[in-house]
Amino acid sequence: MSMDIKKTVFRFVLTTMVIALLPLYVFSASAVTSAQEKGVSGLVSLGDSRSIVLVTLGKPDSAKETDYTFTRGACKVMINFDEKSDLVESIIVLGVCPKYTIRGVTSGSTKAEVRKVFGAPERSYNYKKSGVECWYYPSRNVSFSFKSGKVASFSVCECRY
């Protein structure tokens, strides 16, 4: 077999393998990007214990039976605990909190930035009186509220929207 034929056969086999494996790559990449969120960068994660929250964030400014509130300047973080398991059930971030993010999205991010990371909202609601719009991604455990087109608050929650 000549060298040109070997090169042609090799290219054909390589191209065929790439085409055959490409759907697997696309499927695995989409599976990763649609995974449920488990926490907020810089904070804690869903399922963390109360003691992990205290070690990570210190003493809360307000502590009730099932929730803690932490104030960090213009930022407020609310951590809610499941009544039975006493593990983190939701994390809500309000105000100017640039160091707390979900996949790079934080307070002040635009709708376009949220859409780029999470896609179109699975559900949305516009509160006309207050000018707040909420985007919900129940399959991802995430929601965002917008004021003047920018993220005003966001949450990670195993709640049922």
Account of the 3D structure:
The protein is an alpha+beta fold and 161 residues long. The chain has 2 domains: 1-33; 50-157, Pathogenesis-related Protein p14a, CATH 3.40.33.10. It is 29% helix and 30% strand. The protein contains 3 helices and 8 strands, in the order H-H-E-E-E-E-H-E-E-E-E. The protein has helices spanning 3-33, 50-57, 111-118; strands at 62-63, 67-72, 75-81, 88-95, 123-127, 132-137, 142-147, 150-157. Strands 1-2-3-4-8-7-6-5 form an 8-stranded antiparallel β-sheet, with helices on one face. Strand 5 (123-127) and strand 6 (132-137) form a beta hairpin. The longest helix is centred in the N-terminal third of the chain and has 31 residues, at 3-33. It starts with a helix and ends with a strand. Mean pLDDT is 80; it is low at 5-34.
In total, the number of strands is 8
Distance between the termini: 65 Å
The spatial strand order of the largest sheet comes to: 1-2-3-4-8-7-6-5
> Biggest sheet, in brief?
8 strands, antiparallel
- The number of helical segments is 3
For this structure, what is the CATH homologous superfamily of the largest domain? CAP
Percent strand: 25-35%
CATH architecture of the largest domain: 3-Layer(aba) Sandwich
Cα-atom radius of gyration: 22 Å
| Helix content percent band | 25-40%
Question: Helix-strand pattern, N to C?
Answer: HHEEEEHEEEE
Indicate the mean pLDDT. Answer: 80
- C-alpha geometry: globular
The CATH topology of the largest domain: Pathogenesis-related Protein p14a
Which stretches are low in confidence, meaning pLDDT under 50 for 5 or more residues running? 5-34
Question: What's the level 1 CATH class of the largest domain?
Answer: Alpha Beta
What structural class do you assign from the helix and strand content?
alpha+beta
The overall number of domains is 2
